[in-house]
Amino acid sequence: MLNWKPYADLIIHNAIIYTADLSLAEICSGNYNFPVIEHGFAAAKDGRTIAVGSGDWRIYAGSDTKIIDAKGLPLLPGLIDCHIHDMEFGLEQMGMDFSRCLSLEEMQKTITQYVKTASPGSWLKGSGWNECLWDSNRPPCCKDLDKFAPKNPLYCQHISHHICVTNSLGLRLAKITKDTPDPEGGSIGHFDNGEPNGLFYDRAAIALLEHVMPETCEEEHIKALETSGAILNRFGITQVMNSMMTCDEMRAYLQARKQNRLSYRANLMFSLDRSLGDVHVQAERIKQMTAVTGFGDDMVKMAGIKIILDGVMSAGTAALREEYEHISGRGSTSYSSHDLKLLAQLAGKYHWQVGIHCCGDRSADMAMDMFEQTCHPQNRHFIIHLTLAHPDQISRLKASDISLALQPAINTELGEQAVIGQKYSNLYMPLQTLFREGIIVGGSSDAPVVTCSPFAGMASAVERRLSDGSIHRPNERISIRQALLMWTRGSAYLCHTENTCGKIAAGALADYIIIDTPLLNTSADEIRHTRVLHTILGGKTVYQI
Ligand SMILES: [Zn+2]
């Protein structure tokens, strides 16, 4: 090594270091008291931390060592979001944003703006509408949109990403008529007279639209990763688990990395998307995948297989044990128990980690049956969302070493009615119980569903404040130390990176953030508004104020 020097490339000193340096075994036995180093320093070389402490940092410094004075502010490990759609998030930043629309009229106005500069015939994509924020409280239909985009087909995703609406032109191009049958695992919305109303529920149905849209090219995908990377780094995120990846997207991650345009570590999950075929097609896909869990390196790595087993509470598509309170039915699952078991057996045979999207309690029952019957705990299977958790389910999670990827900010941001409803309120996200039972919980956002800010997630977990100002089940609040461990140790475990990430320790990768807020001694509100001043990935600055 021609340029090798015997001293650090980077030293950050004068910091209060929240090391998060605890083993998973310690956390599971109730120790959340990670070392905090006052007047500390961290030294990094070749992308790794070589020393952490409070002594004399100068002994690690050479003439060209980069030295950062943290000015007494907190230094944390780079944060890890273990369930995010970072590619989609980036692509959406490039389209119409309906998330701030407080009425249908505002959504229509946003479309009108975009149509002005769009070439006739091109698909206009947007996302983020949420009828729960509107007085009308009903989702838009094709007729609401037609006159605002007469020459452009529309693809407008609900904030949950489990509903999409198009205009009549979009319906025509996708050849959807009153006679089009619902695909398995999804449904098409209709007016009372049987004509399609432009709404599509769940992935399998939304795919009917996507099939007639032009494919996203590689450069667009790479741009999306750059765009989301800039935002993730701004919020202190240096690693994610992407939960719905296609082959095209996987190539884009590698290209982005090669071109130095990827500014965070990506763990990629293959999705067994019902829109691609039935259980036999999916089984074949598992057999033919050539990269398995763990394949890759520190920057881009295969994480596992994601199975979306049900929908979301707000759309009435999460699979529940009992009837919904506001609509009839109990929701449905995209695979039967039999099919799910078949997929899990194959996944187990080929050593895949499996993450299952379960918003309802019935789908979670099915996922646990499957994990118990067919899977090795060492594969680190996990449930994504687990919006509702009964005591009997918590016991099963513990007994079978099933972990969780949870998103505390969803409730706060979308409103509790949208997420849980009154009837199930007492079952919603019992965080303190989960910690007490020693279940490993990773922190995540599900962005672009809600903000990717881990500090918003931590504040929600610590506070549990509802939109009416009341505190939801105060006994289930967790401490900020526990919340930090979710976005560091818990998420790193799910990504199989706990030996190198999610902590500041000698030998670990040099992913750091400097923040402006002393998280350990402050209010939930201040936690929520924490600003990241500096984000470092593998010893290199990727964001700085
Ligand atoms: Zn998701």
Automatic annotation (TrEMBL):
Pfam family, any one: Amidohydro_3
Organism encoding this protein: Brotonthovivens ammoniilytica
Cross-referenced Gene3D superfamilies: 3.10.310.70, Metal-dependent hydrolases, Urease, subunit C, domain 1
InterPro entries membership: Amidohydro_3 (IPR013108), Metal-dep_hydrolase_composite (IPR011059), Metal_Hydrolase (IPR032466), YtcJ-like (IPR033932)
Protein name: Amidohydrolase
Entries under CDD domains matching the protein: YtcJ_like
Domain of life: Bacteria
Ranges annotated as spanning the membrane: none
Residues annotated as domain Amidohydrolase: 66-543
